[in-house]
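Lab notebook page, bench 4
Experiment: in silico fold of construct C2
Operator: M.H.
Input chain length: 376 residues
Purpose: comparison with the prior construct
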Amino acid sequence: MNRFVKRYLIDAMSGMAQGLFASLLIGTIVKTLGQQLLRLGTNCVFQFLVDAGNFAISAEVVGAAMAVGIGFAMGCHGLVLFSLNTVGAAANKLGGAGGPLAALIITIAAAELGMLVSKKTKVDILVTPLVTILSGVLLALLCAPYIGIAASWVGKLIMLITELHPFIMGILISIVVGIVLTLPISSAAICSALGLTGLAGGAAVAGCCAQMVGFAVLSFRENRWGGLLSQGLGTSMLQMPNIVKNPLVWLPAIITSAITGPLATCVFKMTMNGAAVSSGMGTCGMVGPIGVITGWLSPSQQAVDWAVHKAEKLGAAAEDIQAITSESIAANPTFFDWFGLVMICIILPAVLCWAIGLLFRKLQWIKEGDLVLPEN
């Protein structure tokens, strides 16, 4: 069971997340930058950025990147790894809005089947790609659309409930996604698989930032500036050994996320209209805040699809639904939007987690040395 969890839930999902970063995420940032620069005037360099971004975010490229990331994390042999490009592209494209989950499940299956025959015959260069590609594409044709529909349905249900009950869902999503971020599981991959955007995506960003910035500030006296940067811009996962030793050290960050989540959904109404993968990133490379900003300037297709779905549920006229495009839901952020972004992602997590941690230290629930990072 432990091997299953590590191989398929930790390693494979981490590889999937890296594939998403190297395609969809960076492509979205580059494309948005190019689009905004083009407003200053036509320029071949600015247009190149848009074109490069468009290539990087295409369904086939994203699927292939995820599949290679998964295969690499699983330790697949070369021919299996390279053959997974086709499998991932097919699964992601056929899976539609839920393509990332379809790519994850089908790539894992195709990788294992490919590894069964890899280096077992004298004609390995033919057998291994044939088995990997044919099995993967067949599974994609048979299963990807249904996996995609299921993932999309779950994601839309979560987002719809968040729209209806922003306070309760703001708390729940912020806590759960934040906890997953700190666990050795990829919160970014989960958010992407569910297509978590809108208010729900904003709550997820809040929860992730609460964990990363919270732990960075909470453990500053033990880890100083190195720990601040490695946790605040890297990952709060570094604290897992300390959490195992004393679970109480996790409570300040969790309580903080329970506060910032509903503030994000109810007060600042912070939405993630960028790539859904950004919802599960927090301040890792500042991807979460950057995702919110790119969503203001150039909403992702997932955000557009969600806007169309909401309009349909509300009984909007056909011409109104047709008018919903990336440009029509793009926002002109106000000072309040920027203020909310900074407060939710940086200031409140730092202040709240530090204050709660101070109380925990006085109560001796957190003792000196409890938060020292292993490498320090």
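Observations: DSSP finds 16 helices and no strands in the chain. The mean pLDDT is 88.
Next step: discuss at group meeting.
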